[in-house]
Amino acid sequence: MISSSLTQDIRLLDEVLSEVIASHAGAETLSLLSELVETCKSTGASEIAAQLDVTARRIAELPLEQAYYLLKALTIRFHLVNKSEQVEIARINRDREREATTEKPRGESIAEAVADLRRRGCSLVEVLETLQRIDIEPTLTAHPTEARRRSTLRQQRRI
Question: What pTM did the predictor assign?
Answer without folding.
Answer: 0.67
